[in-house]
Amino acid sequence: MHTTSELLIQVLWGLGGVLTFLFLFIVVNKAMRELKERRAATLRKELEPRILEYVNGKGERLGPQLGHLGGFERSVAEEILLDNARFLKGTARSRITAACEELGLVQDRIAQLRHPRWWKRAEAAEKLASMKSPKAAPELIVLMHDEVPDVRMRAARALGQLDTRTSIKPLVEAMQDPNRWSALRIADILAGMGTDAADELVENFNTLPIKARVAAVDCLGRAKSLRAPGLLLRLLTDPDRNIRARAAHSLGLIGDPNFTPDLLKSLSDAEWPVRAMAAKALGKLARPEAVEPLARVLKDKEWWVRINAAEGLRSMGDKGLSALVGALSSEDRYARHAAVATLEGAGVVDQYVGMLASADEKEREQALSFIRKIVASERTDSLMQSAARHAQEKVREQLSRVLKPGEVKP
Amino acid sequence: MTPLAFDWHALLLKSVITFNEFVIYYFLTLNTVYLLLFVVSLFEVVRFVRRTFFSDYQQILKSEMTWPISILVPAHNEEQGIVDTIRSLLQLNYGEFEVVVVNDGSTDATLERLIKAFDLRKTDRIYRRTLPTARVLGIYASLEVPNLTVVDKEKGGKSDALNTGINISRYPLFCSVDADSVIEENALLRVVKPFMEHPEEMVAVGGIVRIINGCEVRDGRVTRISLPRRALPVFQVVEYLRAFLSGRIGWSVLRSLLIISGAFGLYKKSEVMAVGGYDSTTDTEDLELVVKLHETLKKQKTRYRIVFVPDPVCWTEVPEKFKTLLMQRNRWHRGLLQSFSRHWRMLFNPRYGVIGTLALPYFLVFEMLGPFIEVLGYLSVIAAYFLGILNQEFFLLFLLVAVFYGVFLSIAAVLLEEISFRRYPGWEDLARLIWYSIWENLGFRQLLALFKVKAFFDFIRRRRRWGEMGHKGFREPAPASPPAGPRPPR
């Protein structure tokens, strides 16, 4: 037992030492950090006005305005430049890039891309993205082969920010390798690079694996490339239902009314996601010839298709709304419910309820006829509330009469 | 011939000595596990801080590919703060999201306050009733705020309210949020990031829950962070830091996270629907859901991830009275026991990977049996004293080692906070955190063990009480409300 006690005493000393170390570490770490932050804040106050003057157009170069900078001063200057880079565009933004190159910050960060620690490489790529210097592109392309996924992704995003033609190709190539890259994130980067990137995607579409194709189709819709529609229209008959659905969606985003006939065909696709996306896209194109087919799919057996068709009709103006009013008398219960919900959202129900107070008898009759259709559709929550709370007594009275108990089915 | 007398005294001595030796080994094993979890968490926190850049969130905010989120807020008798909570949720920094408030049979003016504040009106919105729930009495939409929906339903409990919200929500991800909590402005951007990184595998992400007692809250936002003045909530601050920063991070790295706090978690709707949504027959629906997800997905041999990220913050109020704390912990522990009794087949089952072979055995041995062993340990020391077999020197040294080790774990959690998120910026707060990290081990932790023992007996007797939080309230006082009915316990 004596030996055990001695052992426990040693453990206690050990724990006491660890606790003291932890305590000192916490305190010293906090004190050092606060000192550093204070020093940086003081320096920032001094450097920021001069840097902002340069960014706003004063002088050809920033270096002479700042004078000689030590290591810490350079890091504060870099922080100021990159903070402002987030919010600025145009000439001011280009002057920040020029200043980063002139102060050697771009070169420093390019050198840091080869640092043995992964987070240092990631940090360098992150900062180069904000500096937007095309000089960094070749090194960033090399970094896309880094063994650490986080570093690779930051290199890809930096290339996306540089927005140069040379950045596009390696990004499209990355989409071809689903084991190393998330196609969704690369597609997101490419979509932000505009039509050049979309054109490259169109050219390489057939080389992409299936999941990357779905992401690429989305990207094409967002980029609104003039070269994309031919491919997207062909993809409406692709064997993969996800690709067909996303192609329909992207055609809606591009918004050319000439896509209407092809999208109308997709409304009869065997797979419901394709029908749902075609309905959504047709709503965006808003062509009158789509009104009747959309009104027909209000009876679709799939909930999302009905909702998208109703929303599509709602966005088609008077003709679409008339079709929804027509659907109130449909034999199909789901079509009636979708129509009521959408007409409420569009404010049409409110409009007719308001007309009950009109001095014009014809208008009142029209409103009553509409409201009877809603009552017959068995979705009357909104009308009930208006009957109880509408500002005008006349409206409340008339609604209460129409909604009298026997007439409203549970 | 005299009959052989049974030596009860010797048996008692032997039992007490054996049990005390067992306690020592148990203590060593438990603390080794804690130490390993802390080391794993330390590496993960450092890695997390290093790989997190501001621009990540900027990109998520701007990208059209960012998944939209439905925020579900179950509310039962929350008239006091519901409007503030919803206003602050509507101001969250995120691209596309909707807020679905589910008024779960409130007997106070929760619904009326919402109708008035957001100009709500009843609509005939249609939805798919995939999960069975109590009857929905009405769906309200706002003309002013298009991304707000309020559902009025018959009382069915928190799980039932969340299931109703899931049915009505529109988006592929849903975030469960307590009506009395405050979500930080960028929390959604942070919590969705793992879904953007691993869209196919990610199933659920939990954020950190921090304690709002003592903080200043204006317009539904935390404007000044500081520690509570009273001791009981500060003990809980230390406890939460330890549980989240060195517990959940560690389990998350080991891919065995079993708990995502009900106050703030983000889930893939399709996966939750596939397991039947929240279960209303347990006391901790959040734990039950996560365990159910693990069980189902492991059975299906699906590649999936359920992770914890330490920077999306949800602020919540903790009990300031012992009685309320007892009720809260009683419910938590009962919930653990209920979930455990339902999923015991996963225990020691290699089919469930690390969860079956490590996480669940840990919960069985240390979380469920631990409080018993601790309490019995104290009792056996008393017995040993009266039997005259207590080695006082050894006992005192062992007690000191136990306390020092507990202090080490608490201060280590403070260290993790200091090197990463630093939410308590002042020197005074830091000093108090360290001070309470020491005192927490001299009473508070033992009290929690007693609470858990009581919860075990309540579980055996199948007692189910939700208990009231008895909110002190962290918001400015709300205007007088219309007369409200009694507030039944949940």
Protein model, in words:
- The complex is a heterodimer of chains A (410) and B (490).
- Chain A is an all-alpha fold and 410 residues long.
- Among the domains of chain A are: 228-346, Alpha Horseshoe (Leucine-rich Repeat Variant); 352-410, no CATH class.
- Helices cover 73% and strands 0% of the residues of chain A.
- Chain A has 24 helices and no strands.
- Chain A has helices spanning 2-55, 63-66, 71-85, 90-102, 105-112, 118-131, 137-143, 149-162, 165-175, 183-191, 195-204, 210-223, 228-235, 241-254, 260-266, 272-285, 291-296, 303-314, 317-327, 333-345, 348-355, 361-376, 381-389, 393-402.
- The longest helix of chain A has 54 residues, at 2-55.
- The N and C termini of chain A lie far apart (81 Å).
- The termini of chain B are far apart.
- Chain B is built from 14 helices and twelve strands.
- Chain B has two domains: 2-45 and 356-461; 67-335, Spore Coat Polysaccharide Biosynthesis Protein SpsA, Chain A (Alpha-Beta Complex), CATH 3.90.550.
- Chain B has a ten-stranded mixed β-sheet with strand order 3-4-5-2-1-6-11-8-12-7, sandwiched between helices. In chain B, strands 9-10 form a two-stranded antiparallel ribbon.
- Chain B has helices spanning 8-51, 54-62, 82-90, 110-118, 158-168, 187-197, 231-253, 269-274, 285-299, 322-342, 353-368, 370-386, 392-419, 427-460; strands spanning 69-75, 97-104, 120-123, 136-142, 148-153, 173-177, 182-183, 202-211, 216-218, 221-224, 264-268, 305-316.
- Chain B is an alpha/beta fold.
- The model of chain B is unreliable at 476-490 (pLDDT under 50).
- In chain B, helix 1 (8-51) packs parallel to helix 13 (392-419) and helix 7 (231-253) crosses helix 14.
